[in-house]
Write a structure and sequence with these properties.
five-stranded mixed β-sheet
Length: 143
C-alpha cells in the first residue's frame, strides 16, 4: 500500500506526530516560541479544535535563538528532515523562510509575512516521532 494514499490513517499520523514535535520544541530552551494551533496554550487553539476536530495538521512554525544564523544552522544540521519548501509530504520537511521562500522581501516585509530571521517552518511527516524529536534535539544542541 502506498503511504501517500492512506487517507485518514495518514492524517492521524501527521497530526499526532506534529503535536509531539511541537510539544518538544515548546519546552526546549533554544526555542523562543512555537506557533501551532494544536498546542493548548495557542491563541487559536479553540478555533482549531472547532474547525479541525480530527487534528491540527502537520505544518507549523517556531523561532530559534540565534536569529538568522541560528535558524540557518538548525536547518543545515538536521539529518532526517529534508530541506525543502514543499509541505504536506509523507516525509518531514524543514525550511527557513527568510533565506528561502521569502528571501526577495525586505526584512520588514519578512516580519510582516511571519517569516522573520529566526523563523523555522516544519511540515511533519509520518516517520517515528521519537526519531523526529531526536533529530531536532541533536540539531538544536549545535546552536
Amino acid at each position: 500500500i502506498n503511504a501517500e494514499y492512506m487517507g485518514p490513517l495518514r492524517m492521524e499520523k501527521h497530526c499526532s506526530n506534529t503535536l509531539a514535535v511541537a510539544r518538544f520544541l515548546k519546552a526546549h530552551p533554544k526555542v523562543s516560541w512555537v506557533n501551532y494551533g494544536g498546542l493548548e496554550d495557542n491563541q487559536f487553539h479553540a478555533l482549531t479544535k472547532k474547525y479541525c476536530p480530527k487534528g491540527s495538521g502537520s505544518l507549523f512554525t517556531f523561532g530559534v535563538v540565534g536569529g538568522y544564523e541560528g535558524a540557518q544552522k538548525l536547518v543545515n544540521s538536521v539529518n532526517l528532515f529534508s530541506l525543502l519548501a514543499n509541505l504536506g509530504d509523507v516525509r518531514s520537511l524543514i525550511a527557513h523562510p527568510a533565506s528561502m521562500m521569502h528571501r526577495q522581501l525586505s526584512p520588514e516585509q519578512q516580519e510582516n509575512a511571519g517569516a522573520g530571521p529566526n523563523v523555522v517552518r516544519l511540515s511533519i511527516g509520518i516517520e517515528n516521532p521519537e526519531d523526529l524529536v531526536a533529530d531536532l534535539e541533536q540539531a538544536l544542541a549545535q546552536l
